[in-house]
Amino acid sequence: MKNVTLSAAVLIVALLMVGCDGLKARAMSQTSVDNPVTTVNEKDVISNEAKIQVAILLDTSNSMDGLIEQAKSRLWNIVNTLTTLKYKGQTPAIEIALYEYGNDNIPASKKHIRLVVPLTNDLDLISEQLFALTTNGGQEYCGAVIGEATHVLEWGMREADMKLIYIAGNEPFTQGTVNYKTAVSGALEKAIYINTIHCGGDGWGESASWQDAAIRGKGKFFNINHDEQVRHYDTPYDARIMECNEKLNDTYISYGSKGTAKKESQLQQDVNAKSVSSANFTERAVSKTKKVYDNKSWDLVDKAKESAVALEEVQESELPDELKNKSKQEIKAIVAQKDTERTGLQKEIAELAKKRQDYIDEQVKKDAGKTGDDLGEAINQSVIGLALTKGYVIEK
Fold first, then answer.
1. Which residues, listed in sequence order, are joined to residue 101 by a DSSP beta bridge?
2. Which tens digit of pLDDT belongs to each residue from 136-155?
3. For the chain, what is the mean pLDDT?
4. How large is the average pLDDT for residues 108-125?
């Protein structure tokens, strides 16, 4: 059980990134990866040779509400950072998984561990489930949750794949019957790197084996104040990006049995992002210009990009009411028009995003030394560091 009061200080964590809108990894590259520059590149395609897989294991026991809030604040920033990485000129596929552990609402027979979302490219689903997390006191078994994530999730097998686990919490890493050293060793056998994010005062994470787990797992160790609010920067470009986002949503045409629900979820994730901050909402809007924000499972516009006959495969019963009783040619024309509108809006958002980043970079310089690392920054730092060792490059 936790009974810990942490002073409000500096943040950090390690999945995916000197200010909450700046990044220490800029020392590695002149490209900003905290709020990366966005461009719409028609030649940019998802790579068939490389995949970035990130599993985030969050302690949801008592006193971890701040950690969840940081995760909510940083999800879209992390996504935008990952999309700046290229492998052989192409964008790697991105999959994210989410676990919670240490929560009394999860039975002891399951070691208080729950797989919230398996590895998926459905970014809205990750957001939806992240915002649904709640905390409740429990026992935090770090070794057990690492072991489960290693053996349950479907990890890639290619040499270029980047496979990372990020575990965040504040209790001793040695709790539970599963030895963390054994669990970490098992992950390394699958080339999965373990990154640990200790939530609490400096020094305690080292003595509680959090640092040792990261060293053994060939990952990074971070120490953050999870109760500190993430610093956001409002810019003169946010309002227009939000306007474009609203119009962008209108270019999505739902289909299939889950289409309506997924469309509603897309809009709800906008609401969730905005509930954190306008800056976070803007980050989400920027992410919608990325190739990895792919909704072909429920959106006809993305579906049409799959192949020349993709729309032919959609049954009339799967179409929304406004498209029923229309000919195939009429449907194709409507989808093509929405695609044109979407491309134009994405291009405008990308151009505004670059100006927005330049503005934020100037603010970060002024605030140098006033803030530190948080969950997102920790993830971003470690992902970028590993990527550069595996032949990835950072592109604007």
1. 59, 113
2. 988 999 999 999 999 999 99
3. 86
4. 96
Q: Which two structure tokens, joined as six digits, stand for 267?
A: 């809009």
Say if CB 37 and CB 78 are below 8 A apart: no
Determine the pLDDT at residue 20.
Answer: 34
Q: What's the burial of 69, exposed, middle or buried (CB within 10 Å: 0-12/13-18/19+)?
A: middle
φ, ψ for residue 65, nearest 5 deg? -60, -40
Could you read off the pLDDT of 238-265 as tens digits, one per residue? 999 999 999 999 999 999 999 999 999 9
The burial class, CB within 10 Å (0-12 / 13-18 / 19+), for 86 is middle
Give 78: exposed, middle or buried? Use CB within 10 Å, 0-12, 13-18, 19+: buried
The sign of the dihedral angle between the CA atoms of 12, 17, 19, 25 is positive
Spatial CA neighbour of 288 closest among 32, 38, 95, 16: 38
Structure tokens at 184: 């970490």
Tell me if 224 sits within 8 A of 198, measured CB to CB. Answer: yes
Which of 88, 96, 98 shows the shortest CA–CA distance to 46? 88
CA distance 326 to 314: 13
- Distance, in Å, from the CA atom of 14 to the CA atom of 21, rounded to the nearest integer, reads 15
Instruction: Give the pLDDT confidence of 168-214 residue by residue, as tens digits.
Output: 998 899 999 999 999 999 999 999 999 999 988 776 667 679 999 99
Contact 353, 245 (CB under 8 A): no
Residues in the chain: 396
Q: Which residues contact 390 (CB under 8 A, 6 or more apart)?
A: 160, 162
| One-letter identity of residue 39 | T
Residue of 2, 393, 33 lying closest to 226 (CA atoms): 2
Report the side by side order of strands in the sheet with 113-120. Answer: 113-120, 91-101, 46-59, 162-169, 193-199, 221-224
Greater confidence (24 vs 81) lies with 81
